[in-house]
Amino acid sequence: MKTDRERAILEILLERKNIRVKDLAKQLYTSEPSIRRDLASLEKQHLIKRVYGGAVLEENGISMIKIPFTIRELEQANEKIMIAQRACSLVSDGAVLFLDASSSAYNMIPFLASKRNITVITNGLKIQMKLAEYSNIKTISTGGKLLNSCYALVGEEAYKTIDRFTADLFFFSCRGISNEGNLTDISEAEDYVRNKMLEHSVASYLLCNSNKIGTTYYHKLCHASQLNGIISDSEPPEGLKPYFI
User: Fold this and answer.
1) How far apart are CA 45 and CA 83, in angstroms?
2) What is the 3-state secondary structure (H, E, C) of the chain?
3) pLDDT tens string 76-132
4) For residue 192, which phi and psi values (nearest 5 degrees)?
5) Which residues contact 115 (CB under 8 A, 6 or more apart)?
6) What are phi and psi of 174, to 5 degrees?
7) d(Cα 210, Cα 232) in Å, to the nearest integer?
8) Are strands 118-122 and 54-56 parallel, antiparallel or unpaired?
9) Cβ-proximal residues to 56 (8 Å cutoff; 6+ apart), any chain
10) Whose CA is closest to 73, among 15, 155, 5, 1?
11) Of 78, 99, 68, 63, which Cα lies nearest the Cα of 209?
């Protein structure tokens, strides 16, 4: 992304999935011609698709995969480290873990290094590469089809691997959690892998930085009541308090 305004446009599109130029100009306090130039730039980066009067995210397009990874690598890094530390405090020596391909799960790795005899099963390619630095952590890849832009392995081969294991703990993230407790995302393929891991875990925890609370995206992953807890860096709204640890 070339400008802060382009990033802001992507954030708005992630929440609303489509937007008009007129509304973007009003929301971002800039001119419509400037917004059109931004949209043209984002389209060249294969992040959005322009339509008459505005822009959309294509549900089956590369934008579904590429935008979250582009943004989440930079989002609230300090908060994610705090969440990672809290998550790792739940991990005992000898534990078997599922980790999804999220940057929140990635941040757990340095803190897992102090544990003894743990096994990590993950569909995150970047996570696998980072885990290779630690000889005391056994790493198992789910295999599967690679989503190039977010380094996540998905599909039938990943499901088959997950079906062969039971994990003590599953740590994962998603794009948003509504005030009603619905966990949502924009990458269906990643959600299906997360659901498989959820089914094969004794306990599951969402890693949730504060900017995700109260937001909703088009694909539902699960409900907070299906988890053992949510680990966050902030106080939740009243309605979500029962789910937070």
Assistant:
1) 32
2) CCCHHHHHHHHHHHHHCEEEHHHHHHHHCCCHHHHHHHHHHHHHCCCCEEECCEEECCCCCCHHHHHHHHHHCCCCHHHHHHHHHHHHCCCCCCCEEEECCCHHHHCCHHHHCCCCCEEEEECEHHHHHHHCCCCCEEEEECCCEEECCCCEEECHHHHHHHHCCCEEEEEECCCEECCCCEEEECCHHHHHHHHHHHHCEEEEEEEECHHHECCCCCEEEEEHHHCCEEEECCCCCHHHHHHEC
3) 567 888 999 999 999 999 999 999 999 899 999 999 999 999 999 999 999 999 999
4) -65, -35
5) 88, 91, 92, 93, 95, 136, 137
6) -155, 175
7) 7
8) unpaired
9) 13, 17, 18, 19, 48, 49
10) 1
11) 78
Q: What pTM, to 2 d.p., does this model score?
A: 0.74
Please give the torsion angle defined by the CA atoms of residues 193, 195, 199 and 201, in that order, rounded to the nearest 10 degrees.
70
Residue 142, number of CB atoms within 10 A of its CB: 27
Rg (CA), the chain: 18
How far does Cα 110 stand from its chain's mean position? 19
Q: What is the residue whose two structure tokens read 């989440």?
A: 72
Q: Quick one: what percent of the chain has pLDDT higher than 70?
A: 91
Q: State the Cα–Cα distance between residues 76 and 179, nearest whole angstrom.
A: 20
